[in-house]
Amino acid sequence: MSLFSSIRIAGNSLNVAQAGLHVTGNNIANANTPGYIRQELLQTPAPGYRVGKLVLGLGVEVPEIVQQVDRFLEDRLRGATSDLANGEARESAYVQLETLVGELGEQDLSTALTSFFGKIHDVLNQPENVTVRNLAVLEGTALSDQVRLLDRKARELRKSVNDQVLDTASEINKLIKDVARLNVQIVNTEGGRTLGSDAVGLRDQRQSALNRLASLIDIHVAEQPSGSVSVFSGGDFLISEGTFREVTTVSTVDRGLAVANVQIAETSAPVGGATGKLAGLVESRDGVLAGFIDQLNEFARALVFEFNKVHSGGQGLTGFSQLTSESLVTDPAAALDQAGLKFSPASGAFQLQVFNKQTGITQTKDIFVQLNGLDDDTTLSDLAAAIDALDGVSATVTPTGGLTITSDAPELSFAFANDTSGVLAALGLNTFFSGSSA
Question: Model's pTM, two decimal places?
Fold first, then answer.
């Protein structure tokens, strides 16, 4: 072995050691850098040379500096990131909704209900006291205001989540473009080599973008031999080499809100999958918050109808001289449970009482309601005719589909009692609450 060969081997060893120190220093310097992937120095024997019949080595050389990446763990990490972001989005919706309901405070719905029914109990104990009755009306108004406030705040919260969906779609497009751009830069830098060494910084940037994209939507990433990555979502590709598909939003009206749904602009295929922040936002908007609004509407509807059924069959301090129903039917000749009323009455009856203020005599008549799906089902016209047949009152169907009851003389007044059909509450006669939803 010549002196020159020995010096060359020593030089190769020093160069490799120097490169190793550089890689180690770079790893230490970036220990706290977000998205940085630790690098590793690969060492292989240097090509030998022939001296006579012998092949002598020239020491060691560095073929590549590569990132220490476990592809399986990368996929698991991206999946876990998607699950975490999905859960955080839904948790945020639940926390805000819990704050909105505020059941641990004194301005919550249950407190308003308790106060209202407490005042109703006072009316039962002192029915002749006008002040007590007025306080009950005020508590009923406060309860209605509380329900409306909850509904408005829940809808505002739902709109806020929908705005986040729009922002997420914009961020998805930015990340898709960034990954496609980095694909091209990495391929050009590495020249298509199987092991990447020159583009480690670019690969770190791409990995960070992919992790952020995985937190937004459910994706599958496949690295190609060229060094680029292909990204898929729900079976559709989003990125291939330097080519990418942008996403867009399509709006549909749901519960009075123009909700945005994210899809691939080119194919109209939905984007998001079952995990990721986007899926969590959609579930929060269309599941958690929309479900709360639906339940609040069901609660308000039940409260209005059930309380009105009791109230409409009761009597105040004075009777009525004229009364017109608040709810209108679409067809006076249709059965009452098929006539377009917001609440459906049932078969039953109620009493119509006519009181003569001069004689003190009360005349009572039972008004029957038949709703069995047969030809003799009661219509609004039938109901008006039955009431009109009673001496002392007249009943007509208005042109708009309402029912008007009028006493025939100034000394006469009328009231209702014992309604088992719910028709008075359904028509809005002598009711307390108005409306049919929150």
Answer: 0.81
